[in-house]
Design brief:
Elements (H helix, E strand, L loop, with lengths): L17 E2 L30 E7 L18 H8 L2 E7 L5 H10 L3 H4 L15 H7 L3 E6 L16 E4 L12 H10 L5 E7 L10 H7 L11 H8 L9 H29 L6 E6 L5 E2 L5 E2 L6 H4 E2 L1 E4 L7 E8 L3 H8 L23 E2 L3 E4 L3 E4 L4 E4 L2 E6 L2 E6 L5 E5 L15 H16 L12 H9 L5
Parallel strand pairs: 1-13, 2-6, 2-7, 3-12, 4-5, 4-6
Antiparallel strand pairs: 3-10, 3-11, 7-11, 8-9, 14-17, 15-16, 17-18, 18-19
Length: 471
């Protein structure tokens, strides 16, 4: 089964304008501050749209129809995308939940926000998206579906309401995130910011029989899609047969289809409440998932595209409909783009870029820039040692460099000709490799991690182990 998405990036662009940015942001084209380009108009306070930010945990872009997948996993998301702005090449900032979501909500790379492990608080003086919107008169609410996003790590700051919906690992039924979201929306005040985080696609890969019947083919092996078994495989305690990867993908695809129906329910409610036309709605993810693409399963340990290539789809006032951008963007770009759409000044300290210039009708593209990923979480089966923030990646245009801090292994891939990252071309591109390493080191030097949190309690350790984050 092929999970490779269609290579559409950039091919639909006709007349293009190149927009240049510096290393950590800052538009260098001659645009005056406060000038809002076509598609991004300054919003009057009373008329500012609402913001609904949806993160579907562990969702690979290349398993959605709108990104070229050939299985019907996502009819509702595909329909939403057809009336939205779709970014064909969006990168996560980390291959696991906590650091990547912190980047989404803070507009900063992991080395800047500091949430790179279970044991750190965010960097001092960081202002999250919710806090900024609250200062500008928005009511703020979050419904999160993972302990990773709990108040322990400060991601609740700025939210008037912050609800944690317990994960349903071994159960097939959908999470209760929608129930909580609709309950809040029925008593909302506007303008509002609603952050919704769904864990339904994450392992255990479980969905109702009617979804599994559509995707799961006959299989006689031992792979069952549970987090416990996948962790045991990672630790070398179990083996998988040759058909295991396809079976795990079948289970995963069924869970995406079930999640897609939850999206349908949410969008129908927003339509009935007449909120669709006056809300900025963004669908994205924090990272993808491995299905033996490079020999591994689950996520968090590598920086390959199966983990960093995520969906990013935006719809609402000021955003063009039915448009695709092939520019390479990052999760850190979401926060400044939201602020720009609302006419709120974007803090100069952010790593992310305001993507509103890409909404112009003459199809501009971003000039190549350096985009980073870090905060990996690696466990050595032999030594049983947990390493944090060891494997990093830097992207520049079509090239992606991987760097291992412990072994100093350096890998370079040309994603245009080798999207599955199979052929290491370091030896053929030494000058480029050296330049990318310099940029990566400059990123790594901006490490402002705060003092450590108290150690995890036995109960917290058991919780994180059940979710697959601790072996």
């Amino acid at each position: 089964m092929s999970t490779q998405r269609k290579q559409t990036s950039g091919k639909k662009l006709t007349r293009r304008k190149i927009l240049s940015y510096g290393l950590y942001g800052g538009l260098t084209a001659s645009l005056s501050p406060g000038l809002w380009l076509s598609g991004c108009s300054r919003q009057d306070h009373a008329k500012r749209p609402n913001v609904i930010l949806i993160s579907i945990d562990t969702l690979r872009a290349d398993h959605l129809g709108c990104y070229g997948y050939d299985r019907p996993t996502s009819p509702a998301i595909d329909e939403f995308a057809s009336h939205s702005m779709l970014f064909e090449d969006a990168m996560a900032t980390s291959p696991w939940t906590l650091p990547s979501h912190a980047s989404l909500l803070a507009g900063l790379y992991p080395n800047r926000h500091g949430l790179k492990s279970w044991n750190n608080l965010p960097t001092l003086n960081i202002k999250m998206l919710a806090a900024i919107l609250k200062e500008h008169g928005f009511s703020t609410s979050a419904v999160v579906n993972s302990y990773c996003l709990s108040g322990r790590y400060g991601l609740n700051l700025g939210f008037d309401d912050f609800v944690y919906v317990k994960e349903l690992l071994a159960q097939r039924t959908p999470s209760k995130v929608n129930d909580e979201a609709l309950r809040w929306l029925r008593r909302r005040s506007e303008p509002f910011f609603l952050f919704l985080h769904y864990y339904d696609v994450h392992s255990d890969y479980r969905s109702l029989p009617r979804y599994e019947e559509q995707f799961v083919r006959p299989y006689k092996g031992t792979a069952n899609g549970t987090t416990r078994q996948l962790l045991n495989f990672r630790m070398g305690r179990v083996e998988f047969d040759g058909a295991a990867a396809d079976h795990l993908i079948d289970l995963y695809d069924a869970s995406i289809r079930q999640m897609d129906d939850a999206v349908t329910r949410l969008l129908e409610f927003l339509k009935n409440e007449k909120l669709l036309e006056k809300s900025v709605i963004i669908i994205t993810s924090d990272h993808g998932e491995e299905f033996l693409d490079h020999g591994g399963v689950l996520h968090s340990q590598t920086q390959y595209q199966e983990l960093l290539d995520i969906p990013l789809i935006m719809c609402g006032p000021g955003i063009p409909k039915g448009k695709r951008s092939g520019s390479t963007v990052s999760l850190v770009d979401v926060m400044p783009t939201i602020l720009s759409l609302l006419g709120i000044a974007v803090p100069a300290s952010l790593d992310g870029l305001d993507l509103c210039p890409l909404f112009q009708e003459d199809n501009p593209v971003l000039a190549p820039r350096y985009i980073f990923a870090g905060a990996s979480k690696v466990t050595s089966p032999a030594k049983r040692i947990k390493y944090h923030d060891i494997k990093r990646a830097v992207r520049y245009s079509r090239y992606k460099l991987h760097y291992d801090k412990l072994t100093r292994e350096t890998l370079l891939y040309d994603l245009l000709h080798d999207p599955k990252e199979r052929i290491n071309i370091v030896s053929a591109h030494r000058p480029l490799v050296n330049l990318m390493l310099v940029r990566l080191r400059s990123y790594m030097d901006v490490d402002r991690t705060r003092a450590p949190l108290p150690p995890l309690s036995p109960k917290q350790i058991r919780k994180l182990r059940s979710l697959g984050y601790i072996n």
